[in-house]
Amino acid sequence: MTGRRDRVVLCEGRRDVRLLKRFHDRERQCSCDTFHGGNHTADELKNFESNRLQQFTGRRNADDVFLKSEGGLEELKPLFARLARALFHTFEVAVCLLVDLDRDDHDRWDGPAGVERYHDLIEDLDKRVGDIYSADCGVEHDQFHLRGEALLAAQATFTHDRYASASFDVLAFRSSLEDAAGIGDEDDAETERVKVDTFLTENPEPFDRLL
User: Fold this and answer.
1) Phi then psi for 165, rounded to 5 degrees?
2) Domain that holds residue 91
3) What tens digit of pLDDT does each residue of 22-79 get?
4) Cα torsion angle, 185, 187, 192, 196, sign
5) pLDDT tens string 107-132
6) Model pTM score
7) Among 28, 37, 78, 104, which is most exposed with the fewest C-beta within 10 angstroms?
8) Does residue 203 contact residue 151 with C-beta atoms inside 8 Å?
9) Domain tally for the chain?
10) Which of 156, 148, 11 has its CA nearest to residue 70?
11) Rg (Cα) of the chain, in Å, rounded?
12) Do the domain assignments include residue 156?
C-alpha cells in the first residue's frame, strides 16, 4: 500500500465483509484479503489468526486491507482484546471496528440513549484488554466524527503502559447493515449487491474513515 498503512477491519458478519469489500473495490480499487472466523473451530484459530496477520503485513503480501468477520459482537470483542497489542504495536496496522448497536428507532445519536450502547462497547473493550494485559492497559473514547441517520463514526485509543497510545476507528450501525440497507434474508447475491451499492452511494461520509 503506497503511502498508507495496511488496514485491518474487524466486523461482525459476512455481509459486513461483503459491504466493505465492495466499498474498497469502488472507491480505491485496492486488494482485500478476507477471513471468516466462524468457519473455524477455537482450536484451529489458536495460532492461525496471528499467523494470518503476519502474512498480511509481510513484504510479499500484495493486499492492502484485511477484512475479518467473527459471527457477532460477542465474538468480536474478545478477538479485539486478544489481538490488540499485536495489531497496534507488533504489526502497526491501521485498525477499524465495524459493529451493530442494535438500537431502537426512537433512540437519537444526540440524546443520552443514542450513544449509550457505543460507550458500553468501549467500556467492555477497556475491561477486556485490561484483564488480558495489565491494569495500565485500556481503551478510551476520543471523539465522534459523525452521527448519521444509519451510522456513527468515532475514534478511540488503545493505551498500554509500555507502548505509545494508538488510535483506531469505530463505525457503528445504529441498528444493523441489514436494516440500514434494507437487505432481507430472501435477497439473492445480485439484489444484495445493488442494495449495498445504493447504501454506499447515499452514505459515503462514514466510510471515508477507511480511506
Assistant:
1) -65, 150
2) 7-210
3) 888 887 767 788 877 666 666 656 666 667 777 787 767 777 888 888 888 998 999 8
4) negative
5) 555 555 557 888 999 999 999 999 98
6) 0.85
7) 104
8) yes
9) 1
10) 11
11) 17
12) yes
Q: Which residue has the cell 469502488?
A: 26
Q: Is residue 1 part of a domain?
A: no
Is 2 within the bounds of a domain? no
- Amino acid letter, residue 169: D
DSSP string, the chain: -TTS--EEEEESSHHHHHHHHHHHHHHT---EEEEEGGGS-HHHHHHHHHHHHHHHTSTT---SEEEEE-SSHHHHHHHHHHHHHIIIIIS--EEEEEEE----TT--TTSTTTTHHHHHHHHHHHHHHHHHT-TT-EEEEEEEEEE-SSEEEEEEEEEETTEEEEEEEEEEESS-HHHHHT--TT--HHHHHHHHHHHHHH-HHHHGGG-
- How far apart CA 70 and CA 19 sit, in angstroms, is 15
- On whether residue 103 sits in a domain, the answer given is yes
